[in-house]
Amino acid sequence: MTEALARVKPRVRALEPYRLRAHRPRIKLNQNESPYDFPDDLKELVLAEAQRRPWHRYPSFQPTLVREAAAARHDWPVEGVLAANGSNELILATFLVSVEPGVRVGFPEPTFALYRLLAELLGAEVVPLPTPAPFALDADALIEAARRQRLDVLVVCSPNNPTGAALDADSLARLHDETDALVVVDQAYVDFGGADARPLLPGRPRLVVLRTLSKAFALAGLRAGYLLADPALVEQIDKARLPYNVNLVTELAAAAALRAADRLRPIVEEVRRTRARLLARLQALPGVEAFPSEANFVLFRLHPPAPPPEVVFARLLGEYGILVRDVSRGPHLAGCLRVSVGTPEETEAFLTALTAVFEASHAS
């Protein structure tokens, strides 16, 4: 071990970092972004307002505009809203105030890899929870496991990444009501389907709801998200938020996006329609097991006679310039790829290329 690493925590040195290899594809379908950019006229309004503001001054200590816009959208007290640079920052803040060595953190796997990474970084005892085949989220199984394992923190992504499965409202409520855990519900994809956990907040002081503006609101490049919870809990999580954490442009854009939510709704509806066509076409291909999704992506597993996932991934990218996500090395995800829902044209190009890859493989 080099001297440079001598004072780095051993558990940190042992962790695999969260990384994504950079590519420059013709069609990008690997990160579940919106297939359409933020509207130009709203960009112009945001940038015009940013130009009027002094750039040599710090932004708001608290991103007040985002908190107020989120509070108005969800009819929830502004004191119960926390805003940050994407919901990932809020996952970290929530863990920072609740997780320490010996704390038991559970989540169903497969799921978003950052939960495990952050929990292990903070010294938690990570407890993977059962997910019945094919990747369904089962409230009874989660509650039974949470009780048996005496979980301190229970994290559920609903709709789940990368499977697209979601829990209904009653099941989400039961996770709180029938366990003693702090229940964190990551709803990055809820605009595309699944039950909204926001109506469950009253009377549930251990429930945290996370939302992002990177998906349905087309602001992935600016990084914005927010958290909804009991104001007393938000006050504690806020202690882990860095001061002036959201920059001026992101604050203005996020507030504008939340105020324009109804205007962005047609894009969400188009994504849902395209998702249905994508799922049906994938399910019709020999050797493809595609899983129903409530999110803006579809997970599919390749079986013979289909080529293996690493071959399909490489040929889609190398021959057609189409980038999907190879998730086949994740827990319980052997043979799986995940494809984001693009525009109808991008989705058709992906399906055409995938069919060609299959046909070429069979001919060789």
Report what the structure shows.
It is a single chain. This protein has helices at 10-13, 40-52, 64-74, 87-98, 113-121, 139-148, 169-177, 231-237, 248-259, 261-283, 309-320, 344-363; strands spanning 27-28, 81-84, 104-108, 125-129, 153-157, 182-186, 207-212, 225-229, 288-290, 297-302, 322-323, 325-326, 336-340. With 364 residues, the protein is α/β, with parallel strands linked by helices. The protein has 2 domains: 3-37 and 263-363, Aspartate Aminotransferase, domain 1, CATH 3.90.1150.10; 40-260, 3-Layer(aba) Sandwich (Aspartate Aminotransferase, domain 2). The strands form 3 sheets. It has a 7-stranded mixed beta sheet, with helices on both faces. Strands 9-10-13-12 form a 4-stranded antiparallel beta sheet, with helices on one face. Strands 1-11 form a two-stranded parallel ribbon. Helix 5 links the parallel strand 3 and strand 4. The protein starts with 9 loop residues before the first helix and ends with a helix.
Count of distinct structural domains: 2
What's the helix-strand series?
A: HEHHEHEHEHEHEEEHHHEEHEEEH
- Oligomeric status of the shown chains? single chain
Examine the coordinates and then state which fold CATH places here, giving the name of the CATH topology of the largest domain. Aspartate Aminotransferase, domain 2
Number of E-type strands: 13
Class based on secondary structure composition and strand pairing? alpha/beta
Number of helical segments with 4 or more residues: 12
> Which overall shape is indicated by the principal axes computed on the Cα atoms?
globular
Strand content: 15-25%
Unreliable residue runs: none
Strand order of the largest sheet: 2-8-7-6-5-3-4
Approximate helicity band? 25-40%
CATH superfamily of the largest domain: Type I PLP-dependent aspartate aminotransferase-like (Major domain)
How much is the average pLDDT? Answer: 96
Question: At CATH's second level, what is the architecture of the largest domain?
Answer: 3-Layer(aba) Sandwich
- Highest-level CATH class of the largest domain: Alpha Beta
